[in-house]
Amino acid sequence: MRVLIIDDDMVDRKDIVRVLQTQAGTSIVETATAQEGMAALTNIKFDIVLLDYLLPDKNGLEVLAGIKTLNLSHPCGIILMSGNDDSELLEKALEAGAQDFLGKNEINQQRLQRTIHLARKRFELEYHVRKSQERSKIAARMDNLTRLFNRTAFETALEKMLSSNTEYEEGAVIFLDVDNFKFFNECYGHEVGDELLKQVAARIKQVVDKNDQVARVGSNEFAVLFKAQDIETKKRRLLNRLLKALDFPFAFDDVEINCTFSIGCTFLGNEKSKKDIIKQANLALHKAKGESGYSVTEFDASLSAEIEKQRKMKEGLEFHLNRGEFNVVYQPIIAESGETVSLEALVRWPENSPFGHFRPDEFIPISEQNQTIDKLGEFVFKQAVETLASLKSRGYNDIRVSVNFSPIQLNQWELSVRLVDLCRKAGVSPSDLVLEITETALLSNDFATKRMISELATAGFTISLDDFGTGYSSISHLINFPINQVKMDRSVVPVSQDDSKRKNLLSSLVSMCKSIGAVVVIEGIEEQWQADFCRALRAEKQQGYFYSKPISFAELTEKYLQSEEETAAPRCASM
After folding, report:
1. How many beta carbons lie within 10 A of that of residue 205, not counting itself?
2. Phi and psi based region of residue 438 (left: phi greater than 0; alpha: psi -120 to 50; beta: remaining)
3. Which CATH architecture has domain 327-566?
4. What topology is assigned to 151-299 in CATH?
5. Tens place of pLDDT for every residue, the chain, 575 residues?
6. 467: which DSSP letter?
7. End-to-end CA distance of the chain
8. Long-range contact pairs involving 252-259 (C-beta distance under 8 Å, separation at least 24)
9. Is 212 helix (H, G, I), strand (E, B) or coil?
10. What residue ranges do the domains of the chain occupy?
């Protein structure tokens, strides 16, 4: 046992030493002042401190308060000694942190040993209780899975940083999200999903600075809170480190996962509240999630308006889909002969919508994100087959209708069954429908996509590869999938008669597709010379504003009826 005596009375010290030396294994250090005693505590680990109340430089209560501030690596039990047997002093001593109180006139071998024994027991009990409380506090602030701070601790640290922000240091927040985490969880199981989160947390922890706060603030969302004198430079450096650390596969036994991340960031400011900061970081993160691959977005005022716009689109999608209020318009597709041989069904936002007006390239990606694309796609397909049935009832039996399909729709297990059933109910054949699929749907090369495309082709639908000439444009897709038709994207159509690069590119693409027996459609035709050039390439079909803009069913019917009146036998005339 190691004992420190802090007492300026040499006689009292010697009496105490004489009593302690009767107990084997006791090591004793004597000091005469509070300053000497505090210095000894700082440099030596003691089990018990015998502290005199009246010292020349401080009283015992002041020394007790000072010991608390030392944050000793090996705290010890303290017995306050006094020649004055005062019950009030006893109470104050215990409140100040002493484990017991001993009157100097009571010191003898039996009493001192008993007091030391009880003080040590009390201290050990207090120590374990205190450590348990500290662990509970830490546990309440920690994420059990990743051992990072949790959201509560992050928000507390953010509030503290906001209150202590100075003109010499600025702060910033980074929110980081694992893209498609739900897919990894469902595909590989929750154990692999949990391990992925732990590895992500470890990599983030490795690259941040010592004083940066890292937290898990959501299921697959992390936050980094940091300060610096040059906050912009530190932000760039930290982002570079994060992207580099996360840009290689995560391995778990026999599973290897390649994933991307979305990152949003914002700066702290004296005029911003905790709520403002979190909202801005979330808005930036939300914007980043809308991009493909690794994406970093920094908050600016325009994001608020953009997110509000997306909110209105989400609400409007649910509202109008439940009421069947979306519009479907049709753009003619023209054969080499000049006749209309097909119509492309295109969805449009309802007119006079209380949510505003949005373009298809705005609301369709939102529909894909919030899982309403299946319902929207089925609505468009149903309208298309009903339109087709109506036209055929008027004698236009050679007309076909094209419908666009999102890659997400191809994941529906019974998609082909439902489409065939809709055709049957409308009284049309699947062979009269063309399903336009973008090449991005084929990039995953997964079993479900292959199976569904094969099922649709077997059911009699024509499969058309849309937007060819953008992205990867791989000829292997034309060979490995049952694709009957290829639609050239408007971006490869020459924009002027001197545009030799696009002319050569389009000529090569058309020749390649025709060489494997695919029907070629070229969209984006707006001028006579473009139509003439494409006709010279022997592309089977053309589409664009030169022939007709997308028109409503009413306009379509009117034009067909007019054509019917002009000819003895109904034909699909050019519009």
Report:
1. 16
2. beta
3. Alpha-Beta Barrel (3.20)
4. Alpha-Beta Plaits (3.30.70)
5. 889 999 998 988 888 888 888 777 788 999 999 999 999 988 888 888 999 988 999 998 999 888 888 877 677 888 888 877 677 787 888 888 888 888 877 777 778 778 887 877 777 777 777 777 767 776 678 898 999 999 999 999 999 888 876 667 889 999 999 988 888 888 788 888 999 999 999 999 999 998 899 999 999 999 999 999 899 999 999 999 999 999 888 988 778 888 889 999 999 876 788 888 998 999 899 888 877 667 899 998 788 788 788 889 999 999 999 999 999 999 999 999 888 899 999 999 999 999 999 999 999 989 988 889 999 999 999 999 999 999 888 888 889 999 999 988 988 888 999 999 999 999 999 999 999 998 777 765 567 788 899 999 999 999 999 988 776 656 777 888 899 999 999 999 999 999 999 999 999 999 999 998 999 999 999 999 999 999 999 999 999 999 999 999 888 877 755 554 455 443 444 44
6. E
7. 103
8. 252/188, 252/192, 252/195, 252/196, 255/188, 255/192, 257/184, 257/188, 257/192, 257/196, 259/178, 259/179, 259/180, 259/181, 259/184, 259/196
9. coil
10. 2-141, 151-299, 327-566
Q: Which DSSP string do the residues of 322-348 spell out, in sequence order?
A: HHT--EEEEEEEEETTS-EEEEEEEEE
Distance between CA 25 and CA 17 in Å, rounded?
A: 13
- Which helix H or strand E contains 434, and what residues bound it? strand 433-438
Fold agreement (2-141, 151-299)? no
Q: Global pTM?
A: 0.60
Question: One-letter amino acid identity for 210?
Answer: K
Query: Are 119 and 77 spatial neighbours (Cβ–Cβ below 8 Å)?
Result: yes
Is domain 2-141 annotated with CATH 3.40.50.300? no
The neighbour count for residue 539, using CB atoms within 10 Å, is: 23
